[in-house]
């Protein structure tokens, strides 16, 4: 039995490249079928071009260098971080039912508990080479001297979207910073969690959380972050 | 060739065969260039570590895409980022001589971003990664029939948006 037009259109929409003989025969079975097939072919060509985004130059070479990249922390750290995150998510889920959105302090604590130790470990003795690239995603930049003190930087989820999470080498030890480009805070809020001390600061664009094991390490970091991370159009 | 050299050679083949498509796939699911590169790098790092477990070279593509999707889910299990970079990608004039084509492609890109993930992801797997409906069903853990319905709906919505945005042609009559 030959394919009816409705069935043919369904197949065209679901799998236009189908090579089934019956489907191929149906494409040429009548002017109506042929016209639908031609329109489908045109749409597919445009769809392919639309999805065919340009790829950064050197991407494949960078991938090939992957084995030479420094190894990540042992899996047990990920397992530990994952278990902490699951526990935190469960707590947040229950808490949200009663109280609405998670306050920024809660987000910072949960975020740091999730991967704070990993970022600190990855940055130990390192200088990050992706600082400007990642900040440029948010139309931000960091002055070169400050960027030279960043040991490791990664993208991270924030309450309103995406931000960056990084560790800075200071004379007194590493300090963690989470930049939240789309999250506004009034600034100056200090809080503590799990033996860590944190401060929220307002930036020209969004906000940042500064986290350290001793409150003394936070001194001066607000000015460091506010002055070194600026909108790209204001950077030198 | 030593086993280590052989391992590097196999890894390089995977990079060349799938790196570009994986990046495009990553860009479409996360919408951010830096994050897409990071996802691809992380995918290949994990692939390098587990390369010896890949016994069937024919399964490499689905193996890599599964790693990438898991990595994305792990990174953004709490929050899906907003699309940013895809919308800023211009269609180069030298490859698209017809202005109408460029407009249509930009409309398509915006429309693809607006598709619900359950429609967008099968479409990406099919068009970007070259998956069959059966392979998509296996990757997403749903039936082939459900995949076909989602793909049909995805194209139907894209066509309707092209029509609504005034793109000429008969594509709207397809669905």
- Low-pLDDT segments, ≥5 res of chain A: 72-81, 87-100
First-to-last CA distance of chain B: 55 Å
Principal-axes geometry of chain A comes out as elongated
Averaging pLDDT over every residue of chain A, what do you get? 83
Helix content of chain A: 40-55%
Helix count from the secondary structure assignment of chain B: 8
Order of secondary-structure elements of chain B: HHHHHHHH
- Corresponding CATH architecture of the largest domain in chain B: Orthogonal Bundle
Q: Tell me the quaternary state.
A: heterodimer
What is the overall pLDDT average of chain B? 83
Number of strands of chain B: 0
Order of helices and strands of chain A: HHHHHHHEHEEEEEEHE
User: What global shape of chain B is seen?
Assistant: globular
Topology diagram in text:
The complex is a heterodimer of chains A (236) and B (175).
Chain A: H1 5-14, H2 21-27, H3 31-51, H4 59-64, H5 75-99, H6 104-123, H7 131-136, E1 140-142, H8 144-147, E2 150-158, E3 161-170, E4 173-180, E5 189-193, E6 196-202, E7 207-212, H9 221-228, E8 229-231
Antiparallel strand pairs in A: 1-8, 2-3, 3-4, 4-7, 5-6, 6-7
Chain B: H1 3-30, H2 33-49, H3 60-75, H4 85-88, H5 99-114, H6 117-127, H7 133-140, H8 144-164
What is this structure, in a nutshell?
The complex is a heterodimer of chains A (236) and B (175). Chain A has 236 residues and is an alpha+beta fold.
Structure description:
Chain B: This is Sigma-70 family RNA polymerase sigma factor. Chain B: Residues 14-78 form the RNA polymerase sigma-70 region domain. Chain B: GO terms for molecular function: DNA binding; sigma factor activity. The complex is a heterodimer of chains A (236) and B (175). Chain A is of the alpha+beta class and 236 residues long. Chain A is elongated. In chain A, strand 5 and strand 6 (196-202) form a beta hairpin. The longest helix of chain A is centred in the middle third of the chain and has 25 residues, at 75-99. Chain A has a 6-stranded antiparallel beta sheet with strand order 2-3-4-7-6-5. Chain A has helices spanning 5-14, 21-27, 31-51, 59-64, 75-99, 104-123, 131-136, 144-147, 221-228; strands at 140-142, 150-158, 161-170, 173-180, 189-193, 196-202, 207-212, 229-231. Chain B contains 8 helices and no strands. Chain B has helices spanning 3-30, 33-49, 60-75, 85-88, 99-114, 117-127, 133-140, 144-164. In chain B, helix 6 (117-127) crosses helix 8 and helix 7 packs across helix 8 (144-164). The longest helix of chain B is centred in the first third of the chain and has 28 residues, at 3-30. Residues 168-175 of chain B have low confidence and may be disordered. Classes of the chains: A alpha+beta (236), B mainly alpha (175). At the A-B interface, helix 1, helix 3, helix 4, helix 7 and strand 2 of A face helix 1, helix 2, helix 5, helix 6 and helix 8 of B.
